[in-house]
Amino acid sequence: GLVGTLPTEVGSVSPALEVLGLPVNQLSGTLPTELGMLSATLQELDLSRNALRGALPSELGTLTRLRALKLSGNALLSSLPTELARIGQSGVSLDECEMQATIAPPPSPPA
């Protein structure tokens, strides 16, 4: 499996990347903010069963096409960015994380 940190270059890997799946490896460190650069295309992010730690970057909230977020089995310590509420409970997997896994409803549009 892969060992080390997720490089910041992950945000510029491919302009057409739809799925980033790196589960069950030995990736460590924090999630790079550059993941937000995949906002136009990324639909699934699976980094479950690694050794990732720290806070989720708020830039994950810019992933407007994201439908599945799988981060189970990591030591992530923050709550989900409220922008990710549109994914819903069924698209988010946070089992065995040390984080606040509540998902707030998306904000109501202004009247």
Describe the structure.
This protein has 111 residues and is an all-beta fold. The chain contains no helices and 8 strands. It has strands at residues 3-5, 19-21, 26-29, 44-46, 51-54, 68-70, 75-76, 92-93. The radius of gyration is 13 Å and the shape is globular.
Topology of helices and strands:
Layout: E1 3-5, E2 19-21, E3 26-29, E4 44-46, E5 51-54, E6 68-70, E7 75-76, E8 92-93
Parallel strand pairs: 1-3, 2-4, 3-5, 4-6, 5-7, 6-8
Quick gist of this model?
This protein has strands at 3-5, 19-21, 26-29, 44-46, 51-54, 68-70, 75-76, 92-93.
If strands are numbered along the chain, what order do they take across the biggest sheet?
1-3-5-7
Write down the overall geometry.
globular
Helical amount? under 10%
The secondary-structure element order is EEEEEEEE
Keywords:
single chain, 111 residues, mainly beta, four-stranded parallel beta sheet
